[in-house]
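Exercise 7b. Backbone tokens:
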């Protein structure tokens, strides 16, 4: 069985409950779903764009703590409160990812119409391949 290493950083909101910010198991890094919570105040950012940008910043911070970058992401699961927000979220997400010329784009599954933690509008779950 592969060893498991918990990944933590103060640059993303702390885990609330019985989970880690991320776990590295072998060459894969599994990030807990991140929302648009500010790592200092713990409060959700106001509005869809701000929540999406903060969510991606939180993911970037956890990836960095794990020794990864957005280019190492292999799979994401996007959770949205409203399907009509998909296009706006996708535009922000696409600008955050490396281009196709820089790295292969990750696989993605998306769900909408969900009640997300603390009333979040968007949440992203990530699996990355550790480059080491």
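Sequence design result:
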């Amino acid at each position: 069985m592969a060893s498991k290493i918990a990944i933590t950083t103060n640059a993303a909101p702390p885990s609330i409950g019985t989970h880690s910010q991320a776990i590295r198991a072998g060459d894969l890094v599994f990030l807990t779903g991140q929302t648009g919570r500010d790592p200092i105040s713990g409060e959700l950012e106001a509005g869809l764009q701000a929540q999406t940008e903060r969510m991606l910043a939180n993911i970037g911070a956890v990836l960095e703590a794990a020794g990864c970058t957005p280019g190492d992401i292999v799979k994401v699961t996007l959770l949205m409160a409203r399907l009509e927000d998909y296009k706006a979220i996708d535009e922000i997400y696409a600008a955050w990812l490396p281009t196709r010329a820089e790295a292969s784009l990750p696989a993605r599954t998306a769900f909408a119409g969900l009640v997300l933690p603390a009333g979040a509008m968007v949440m992203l779950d990530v699996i990355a391949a550790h480059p080491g």
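Instructor comment: The domain at 4-129 is CATH 3.30.1330.40 (60s Ribosomal Protein L30; Chain: A;). The radius of gyration is 14 Å.
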